[in-house]
Task: structure prediction
Amino acid sequence: MDLRPVGIFDSGLGGLTVAKALRELMPEESFVYFGDTGRMPYGPRPAEQLRRMAVQNMEFVASFGVKAIIAACGTVSSTAPDLLESFRLPVFGVLKAGVRALAAVPGDEPVAVIATEASIKSGAYARAFQQAAPGRELICVACPAFVPLIESGHNSPEDRELRAAAETYLSPIREAGAAALLLGCTHYGIIEETVGRVLGPETELISAAGCAARDLRDYLAARGLEGGGSREDYYTSGSVERFNEEAAAFLGWSVEGRVRQVPVMDPDT
Ligand code: DGL
Result:
């Protein structure tokens, strides 16, 4: 048993889909969550800046004495995979776990991934998939409008703006008859129903969030490092009030009284 918490970070609320999966899989695990809402969205930022921010965020959660970290952000996972791997603590990204699940989808129809602009531009999803399932077609689509929409509360499948953006991004995937779609950005878990409605039941939806949480569980179990508590501490570089309000929609439980604000870090240092 290891009572140290797990550290989780993301650009904002999206990583809460990983926190939720972790809580479901491991009810007796404490975690420290950092949502970098003050610097959100990450998707349009240049790779060099994202790599510095990846290190800053890992250092921030590591300062709480965590035993392992989940980089619950597709953008960081795909632009700084080497930095995640070489950090002094075990760090789990969402890219590898998600691609592994996508590559295991049977059949030879194309499959697809949607993610932020920086994630798709990095080519990391395409490269990892090519290695895991050589020869199978992967359709990669950047969806830059999704994160800002989600962070401003446009989550509902009935939301007109969200639905219009989803139609635009997803129709090429529907037309290609994709067998499966990887939600390569952790924010997208909250709009899974909207995505499913646009694509129809033939396309299996794979959540990178759930895959990463399972990777961490397996890692801790194999080493006897499971926890024995269920404490949850949240930090945001944005508004605590907004985090309180929006987090409940992601998690399905209230975080009231457990959220603290931290200053916005300079992305260029
Ligand atoms: N949740 C982040 C991801 O998985 C969103 C990045 C953003 O803020 O644009 O990529």
Observations:
- The domain at 6-93+223-261 is CATH 3.40.50.1860 (Rossmann fold).
